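re: that complex we talked abt at group meeting.

here r the seqs, copy pasted straight from the sheet so there may be weird spacing, ignore it
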Amino acid sequence: MVTVTLPPGSAALLAREIAGRVPDPELPMLTLADLGVLRDVEIGPDGASVTATLTPTYSGCPAMAEMRAGVDRSLREAGFADVHIRTQLDPPWTTDWITPDGRRKLADNGIAPPGPAPKPRSGPVPLVLSPTRASVPCPHCGNPDTEETSRFGATSCTAQRRCPACLEPFPHLKEI
Amino acid sequence: MEQTLSDDHVYLSLAEGHEEDGEARWAFGTGFTDPLHGVDTAVPAGIDRAELAACCLALGDDALVSAQRLAQWCTLAPELEEELALANIGLDLLGQARLLYARAGQVDGTDRDEDAYAYFRDPAEFRNVRLAELPNGDFAFSIARLLILSAWRLAVFERLAGTADPVLAAVAAKGIKELTYHREYAADWVVRLGDGTEESHRRLQRGLDEVAPYLDELFADGPESGSLADPASLRDEVTAVLRQVAEAAGVELAEAAAPGSGRDGAHTEHLAPLLDELQGLARAHPEATW
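got the structure back, here u go
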C-alpha cells in the first residue's frame, strides 16, 4: 500500500477522481460520478483524511451499502488511510444529476436515458391519469415513438418499454 | 462519531483477507448497515423528541406492514410485470421504514436499531393503520388499497417535507418522488379495472367497498398530526384525488366506518399472523446475521 503525500489541492483531485470511478453496482456501465450519486469529496484540514458524500437514489435501493463500501475500499486502496463516507439525504437525488457522459453510456448500453425530471412545485402533486412523458426514443434504432410495457423494471430506477419499429424491448431510466 | 468508527471497523474486520481478490464487497451481513449511516443526526433544539419518535414509528410501521403485504404478491400476481411493480413499491416502502425506524431509535432515548422495531415488538406495540394490515384479497382489493394508502401517504409526506426535524423532512422529501409514482401506478390500474370488463369492474367496486370502513382512521388525530402542516386539509385533499380516479374509473367511493384505530395498538386479527411470518426467523435466531 502506498501512502499519499500530496499537496491538499491535488490530493482532493486525486480522491475525487478515484471515488468518481467506482461503478454503480446495478448499472455497472455508469460510475458514481456519472450517476450524480457522488456529491462531494473533501480532504480534511489535516491534509490526510478524506470525506466522500453520497446521496442515495431510492430510499430502499439495496445498492447503497455496496456503493459506500466501494468508495471506501477504492480510496483506501489508493492510499488514503482515513476515509469517511457521509450520506446526504437532502436535496434528494434526481435523474437530472446524471451527467451527459452518463446519458450517452446508458444509451450505448441499450437503456433509454431519462428526460427532464418533473419540476418541484409548491402545493399538492397533481395526479395525471395519462403517460407523463410523450416520447422516449428507442436506444437501439432511434425510433421516437415507443410503448411502455411496465411501469417498473428489473431495478427500482427503470421502467420497461418496447419499440414497435425494431421490436426490441428496453429499459428506461425513470425521471424522478 | 463513535458510531461511524465502529461501523468502519466492523466492515474492515469482515473484509479482512479479501482486500486483494476484490471479494471484500461480499463481506456484508444485515447486522450493521445502519440506514442513517453517515447522516448528520443531531436533533434541533425545541423539538419534542417523544412526539417526533411516535411520528416516525407510526409512519415506519405503515410502511413495513405495507411492504410485507406487497411482497406476499410475489409468485401470485396476475402478470410478471405487476409482480415486479408491487415488489418494487414494497422495496421503496421498506427503505422508508428503515430510515424512519433508525430515526425513531435516535430520538426516543432507547437507542434501538431498525431490527429492534421490526422484529422484536408484539402486535399491540405496532402503530400502523389497520388498512395496511388487511389481507391482500384479490388484485382489485390490493390495488384499491394501494391507491388509498399511497395518495394519503403522499399528502402526509408533502406536509412533513417542511417539518422542523431535518432528518424526517429529508426522508419525506425523498419519499414524495417515490409515492407520486406509486399513486400513479395504482390510479392507472384502478381506471383499467373499473373501465375494463364487467368482472374487473365488479371486483374493483367490491374492493373499494371493503376498504371504505378504514378510511376514517387515516384522518383521525394521530402521532403524526403534530408534525404536519395544516392537518385539517388532509382529508379534503386526499378525497379529491380519490374522487378524480373513481370518476375516471366509473366506480363509487362508499362511506362506512369501523371504529377503532391501529394507531392505538388496536389491530385486526390479521396483524399477528403477518408479524409471525415477518419476525419468525429473527426471533428464532436473535442477533444472527447472514
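couple things i noticed - Chain B touches chain A through 56 residues (CB under 8 Å). The radius of gyration of chain B is 20 Å.
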